[in-house]
Amino acid sequence: MTSTSSPFPLFCLPHVVLTEVFNSTTPDKIIRISLCSKKAARVIKYTSSKWKKRKDLELILQETQPSVVKYKEFSLLSVSHIFKADNQRYLESLKIGESTVPVGTSNMVTYWADKLKGVRSVMEYVMDIFNSEIEIFDITQDATSSEIHYIFQWMAKRKTAFSLFILDCNNVTTVDLNFFFRNMQFNEVVCLNGRLPETYRYQQNSFWTFPRGFVNLYAGSWMRMSHLLTMNCLNITVMDVPFTNKEINSFLKKWHSGEACPLLKYLHLGFPKLLNLEEVVEGLDGVKVPDGIVREFDIILS
């Protein structure tokens, strides 16, 4: 005796049951289902689930490897140049947004003649399916200046406060960096890694005054004390700062009296040369921790 299987009428299920199904389905599988047909995408879009309206969508922008849109640890869709496709005969044509493109269904890599268009289309498709903003951005060291410029322009048009931003400054231009500071807002974490362009000069704006949990700057030689005084942040880490002993002492006194950085709980500064600690703590109740004493603490961003 032989048995045959027939397709299961998933989208004929009641809305309540569909919600339970999608709640038990991982985000990457939800994207795969949504690409099956227009009806599948529409049903998923208008069916409530625990995956929606969350701050968990992330873009990893890179050049040598495909850029990826993720949901926490789940890779949803990747974007690559069409010329990097090994064998297009084994790719399936799927519609993403207004474009029909080759997709490797084993790894969900999409291939585009215009990679930047692909990044935008994939981001907007995923945001539409999950009814959520992409709020986490990781721009790696091999992202090109044109890619960085494009994503900055796209982010500015969203007019939202993002959650987390990591930028390797290897290929960012001074023009784009100034545009970034003028037009972006982040309410949790900002990390700028690597050296800023040698031509970069800080321009006065409200970027640092926006409340956030964590700021990490690898290269802070451009900073002045006036910049640090305006940082409205819980946790500040800046390396290679040019501040003098007296400037740090003045800042600590203002912070201690509540005149500067009202949110600040943790400050870590790196200096190109040793400080005179006596000058730094002059007039403060500073206590030197004996050698061998280790203090541990937790940094809570929210």
From TrEMBL:
The organism's place on the tree of life at top rank: Eukaryota
Entries under InterPro entries matching the protein: F-box_dom, F-box_Sdz-33
Annotated ranges, domain F-box: 7-54
Name this polypeptide is given: F-box domain-containing protein
Originating species: Caenorhabditis remanei (Caenorhabditis vulgaris)
Top-level taxonomy: Eukaryota, Metazoa, Ecdysozoa, Nematoda, Chromadorea
